[in-house]
Design goal:
This protein is mainly α and 465 residues long. It has one domain. It has 17 helices and two strands.
Length: 465
Amino acid sequence: MVLRLTLKELRERWRDGRLPWAGGAVVVLMLVALAVGFDRQRDARAEQTAGQALDYQDWLKQGYRHPHDAAHQGMHAFKPEAALAIVDPGINPYIGSTVWLQAHRQSEVQFRPAKDATGLQRFGDLSAAWVLQVLGPLLVIVLGFNAFASEREQGTLRQLLSLGISPLQLLAGKATALAACLAVLLVPAALVAAVAVTVGADPGRGLDALVRFAGLAAGYGVYLATFVFLTLGVSALAPTSRVAITVLMALWIGQAVMAPRVMSEVARVRYPTPTRLQFDQSLAADWKATSDRTWMKAFGTTDRWGPEVPLNKWGIALQLDDHANYGVYDRQFGRLWDSWERQQALQEWSGVALPLLAIRAFSMDFAGTDFAHHRDFTTAAEGHRRTIQDIVSRDLVEHADPLGGQHFAYQAGPDFWARVPPFAYRAPGAGFAFRHAWRAALALLIAFAVAAAFAFVAAKRQRAL
């Protein structure tokens, strides 16, 4: 019986044109988004690979010079594009891709694509994830808003129930039909995306990319299923199709347009972050206090690089100063990053009532384009900067400090530059995504359970109507 009801619903969706026209438009848009994402990723990876190689060659070919001068020149670390960024670019357009590894200072990631974007950027990037997150629920609404309401208006609902078909069988048939409509449209697009993700994965990371993609697909399946049951529940309770689509469109607008901005502000108020000026002032104060303690303990003065510190101790002074201030950057940036993660956690939990926020976080987690993955890269880049500093300091202690007043006459050559390894970053595997996506996944499952229970109760009421 459920199968017959499913086939009946499918025929109706095809005959009235909603499935081929509305669904076709969404699929075409998704395929275009995948093509755009694949092309963008290919160009970005080529630029990043070339930039990383050329930057290291510049380091190796800098000739004879004082190592401290070379440390101030530093290197650049380029953040590699995640394979699933073609599906969901996440926060990448807003947080940059390059870090300058300079002496004495932890730099922020620079070169944000959003800075070069037009005013249309505020409406969101065209990506497969955006299509599924925003237009996917709208497609479900268009296909299913009158699933129960039209039958009630036409008088066929009573006839179906009089034949011994239970309301739950009706719900199962209509839900299966909507799921089949989505599958017919989205499964081929998902196969195309899986091939593109595999092709775009780094060597040896194809399986990891597919595991991530499978998790991503499962999340979107739960997300769209939530709207299937929500749509059917509203259609079952609404007296007419017009009321059903009005209510559903209001819910869609509320979650797609209003909720993200409202919850972003709520999270910012609940877990405030310092302004750029406040952060710089706090960092400078912490840095000065730590340096003063270090220099007083080691050299009996707080006058950094003053006459009280002879040149034959500048190498060790540089080493002590850097190691003391590593903790400063860990504290200051750690507090800032922790506040951002608390804001994100609040938005993820709000996904129980606003599934878009949960699937957005879940999608970025599995695509590797969320803040947790970005923080992992930033931490790795900072670790490499400290490696450069430590190598330079040890060399100064070994070769420049013994020269005394001729400390700055010392020059290192190509053999020394080659001792500094190139920056090589390996993004964390799928397990990292599973560990960080649990809140969003739980919020999605709760939202799905609530929607299914709502549809169940609404469908059972059909017997009494």
